[in-house]
Amino acid sequence: MDDHADFRFILKQLFSMAVPRSTTRLFENGQALLDGLNQSDALPVLILMDCHMPVLDGYQTILQLKQSAAYRHIPVVMMSSEADSSEIRNLYRAGANSFIRKPIEFTAQMELVAQLGKYWLDTNLIE
Q: Of residues 20 and 39, which shows the higher confidence score?
């Protein structure tokens, strides 16, 4: 989830290449994610979320996710290129499972998505 359409497009393409068996749904802000979850029959196995978004930011969104019995079990990976240590601490306290720095370069983004997909969808056993 990211408020920049260009980054959402790149992220979807990278996930399709790195983890071809996964289905990727993208949302522009936290409220759109919550609305999408409420309207979906299938829950995601992972939520990758930017910290800084309009309408409902990452911190506000993770608080709502972790307060919900239906969604609190879903791992949430927060990302930002601009978060400071205090903000990162608060995200972990709110229930984030991981925090990563959002890379700027395309090659670094590709490597990161491959690593995320491998760990969260292959290595890490949720069920």
A: 39
